[in-house]
Amino acid sequence: MVRLPRNAPARDGFVTLRPTTKDLAQAAGVSLATVDRVLNGRSGVSASSTEAVHAAIERIGFERNIVAATLARQRGHRFLFALPETSTEFLDVLLDRIAEFRRASMGEMIQIGVLRLDERDPHRAARSLTAISAEDCDGVAIMAAETPQIRDAVQRMRERGINVVSFISNQPEAEGLPFVGIDNAAAGATAGRLMRRFLGPRSGSILVLADTMQGRDSLERRLGFDTIFAGALPQLQVRPTLESYGDPDRTQRVLANAFAAHPDVVGLYLIGMQPQLALATLASRPSAPITIAHERTPSTELALREGRLDAVVHQDPGHLVRSAARILRAQCEKRPILASQERIRIEILIAENL
Amino acid sequence: MVRLPRNAPARDGFVTLRPTTKDLAQAAGVSLATVDRVLNGRSGVSASSTEAVHAAIERIGFERNIVAATLARQRGHRFLFALPETSTEFLDVLLDRIAEFRRASMGEMIQIGVLRLDERDPHRAARSLTAISAEDCDGVAIMAAETPQIRDAVQRMRERGINVVSFISNQPEAEGLPFVGIDNAAAGATAGRLMRRFLGPRSGSILVLADTMQGRDSLERRLGFDTIFAGALPQLQVRPTLESYGDPDRTQRVLANAFAAHPDVVGLYLIGMQPQLALATLASRPSAPITIAHERTPSTELALREGRLDAVVHQDPGHLVRSAARILRAQCEKRPILASQERIRIEILIAENL
DNA sequence: ATCGATTTGAGGTGCGCACCTCAGAATTTT
DNA sequence: AAAATTCTGAGGTGCGCACCTCAAATCGAT
What we know:
CATH topology of the largest domain in chain A: Rossmann fold
Shape of chain A: elongated
Oligomer: homodimer
Strand content of chain A: 15-25%
Order of helices and strands of chain A: HHHHEHEHEHEEHEHEHEHEHEHE
């Protein structure tokens, strides 16, 4: 229990205490009020005063005490996660992590809400977003396919002063929206590389199954996957992407057809969010192809353990949630974000490192 | 900018404001002073009062406001990272992360120091630890091989009231020390599984090179690695562990000898912290074996990109540092730790998911 | 019943900052 | 020059909690 007297001498490898706003005011030769005005971007400060404060900040190495600031700024950030309404295992996991984060961040004065967007009806989804008022909400993390309606809604939200990040599924970067999620092309390439290595010298067809190829994410993953097999690999044929539309029956049907059409299937890449649908179909097949899926869920985890799945390419939902919240918070407080810390890693899971 | 008036009505998916200690005192029918005594584990409270407070905590769902608490408890935690003196690339990366974390946590009133321990001389290392006073330091994360001297020094530190976690290299769990790091047996098994899959139908010898097999970590990794090849794999021979002692010349020598003795080498598992030594030797060989190493460093990253390394099994140094600090802090504040959040993942890196 | 020990309550202080007010100073405009 | 405007400083308040003191109440044992 080390108390920290002001002006504590530097000892060992430790640093001394940090200057406060009072020290800053003194160093800058202005009053606390002016320091406050500069620090919090209030109006009515002359250029020379602003300059003096900034110079003093540099000189004495002032850093705002975030703990005290968030306490004093009796303002809990309210963030919304806008997620698709259709339920998938990955979304369930994500919701769990959001709930977990909500509990953890109550202590930090952050309130978390969830809004479900009707994917089938972009207009309705856009209206849900438009209904969010800046009074109720400081920031929104949006996971939705990019449509003109959504794009407009996002634009209007930002005009209302609500911070927005695009979450997991990337909105076009042109708008300058921060993106929280993995590089899907790299994720696809990762899956492709594993597939190729696991296949070794084997030859045959590789099937690719997506929920739908409408979404940017699936496209990017497929493109990344293909980069690995492009060129000199005549013995491996990556077949056109099959689409399941998240429908168990259709999944069964398209897979059965594909297996019939290509008796030499040696690999199966499950791009989409519902790999368990395909895995269920596959369970009945005798010689299983090398199978790689995305996202760790109870289903994929079990399949990995049971050997029905050879690898899973994953993005950590906990990280996604926390990163989105950190970015939104930084934006609210007009702090810079450390891009390096916010990069979501592409994780590879096999049975041994679960 | 949402202000949070007390007794704010619940809106949307948001939660209402949290009760304060004052509310808690009222609910428990005791005074603020008694609530304070219970919350902070001070003495002189009857069992019945303690009971009443805890019941009230449950009932009204009180949760301490960490922001206010850390501000009021004008006590900056001081934590030390005690690391080996011998420099490796992994340690350099680790030091970078520690420096980064130090900067980031100044705002949270946490001070971070680094202490280097002379590995060659356990007595000297133990003395360095013994010199740490509880006045100067609230917690220590120790990365060191377990020796009787270190064990005793740790014991004495704990008796002095300094919190300790064993860091990266595990001290025996018998002492009830929290451990921050990966399960090395699982990490070894992960490397083994990748090796086996990457080898496919190939047959031959697999070499294993460690810095030294003195450390528990290397032993565990080797054991985990072997589990994958145990039993029905006559075509793959995992050879006895070679030791480099971190010496470039010796590395070169033992590897050259091993390659001479086993012309059929198809795999190379680099257990230790200095894979770059072996990689340098390997660069001159024509047909490279499947090579797997531990820990992402500039060297291993480059080797992955250049194809000289096929996979890296990794533990994130940033996570390690933050997790150690979180655990130490939780111990200082007598808070429980969320074991699930503190599990360090075994990451798999290939060229595509860097 | 008396004494000591234990338990409790009331109250205060301060952490570092955000945010507010209002009066006075410095500057610009008329 | 006066008036209007912009800028500045001094001061206060409160966030939720930790930590402190001191007096009063309660308890147990003799």
